[in-house]
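fyi for ur records
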Amino acid sequence: MKKLDRINELVDELNELKLGCMAASLDSLYHSKSFDELDAVSLLEQVIGPEYQSKTSQRFQNRLKCAHLSGGPQSLDKCKDSTERVYLPSDINATLSSLDFIREGLNVCILGPSDSGKSYLAKALGIQACLNYRAMYHHCEEFLETMVALKQADYSKYQKKVRFYLKLDLLILDDFLLHTITDEREIKVLFEVMEKRSELSRCTIVCSQREPNSWASMILNDEVSANAILKRATKHYTVVIQPRN
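which gave:
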């Protein structure tokens, strides 16, 4: 069999396996002047590389979509001290940008007034995490309302959803305790998710306008759960974003 015929067969087989980038790379390389000069390793690198990049990019985009973070312009490079804001403690963003806290299952609490950049930082961390981890972003109030409604409508589906959230490498709860929680069912859901994720060493990021010492007053009639939630959310890293005067 001629080399060209065999190459064409390989291209067809790669396309049949839905490895279109590898097929196109092999076909292009074969018709290039450098094909016969390539060693085996270099040939494999040039054939496999584009396919790997394509699959990795697609997986990243899928994760962004599932995480409710697709389309976000957030960049960690912009999360640094500036004329508008300062991040405390010093160099905390450099520490978080490694994403070691996700691998180690450590929680992050981001505090600051409205429009200080809390959500931006949390989303930027979430977007970067999607390269290697499963993440999800929610507004806390909507998250609790949805989970309570599901629990009331179909408990088995609720349990399945809880298991899903427990498997996530990173869960981001924005606007954490923005309003007082008076519904005991919402308190129980929040406690269950925070407690079980902590037990499994799964990372949770919460963003709040309120100081943690005021959280207990935002969770009515359940001091035990309030203290447990406070302990879990602030156990490891706390970032304070302060606007400059």
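The radius of gyration is 24 Å. thats all i got for now
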